[in-house]
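Field log, afternoon session.

UNIT: design team B
ACTIVITY: writing a sequence onto a fixed backbone
BACKBONE:
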């Protein structure tokens, strides 16, 4: 009968966990840098540019995104539950500026 408490020690066949973590971190790092290298225009920046509160800007953009005939790209570019942000010079950013300037009636 064999004793179940005694086990043979064997050498690990894979690399240690610390080596695996650094290897995966090195692979993932360039992908993150590629995404952050593109500066995005955020809703907060656009609202400051238009001199209006971000909350009002968000409300106007939600209404404008529903008007697909007037602002076709604005509704397609924005995903639900995601922050409002645009690439500089994009058509959606131009439409967002147009929608906010049309809705901004404050002096």
């Amino acid at each position: 009968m064999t004793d179940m408490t005694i086990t043979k020690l064997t050498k690990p066949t894979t690399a240690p966990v610390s080596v695996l973590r650094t290897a995966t971190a090195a692979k993932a790092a360039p992908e993150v840098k590629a995404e952050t290298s593109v500066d995005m225009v955020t809703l907060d920046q656009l609202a400051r540019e238009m001199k209006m509160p971000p909350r009002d800007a968000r409300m106007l953009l939600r209404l404008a995104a529903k008007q697909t005939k007037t602002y076709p790209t604005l509704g397609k570019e924005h995903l639900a539950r995601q922050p409002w942000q645009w690439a500089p010079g994009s058509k959606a950013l131009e439409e967002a500026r147009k929608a906010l300037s049309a809705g901004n009636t404050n002096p």
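LOG NOTE: Confidence is low (pLDDT under 50) at residues 31-36.
NEXT ACTIVITY: expression trials, pending approval
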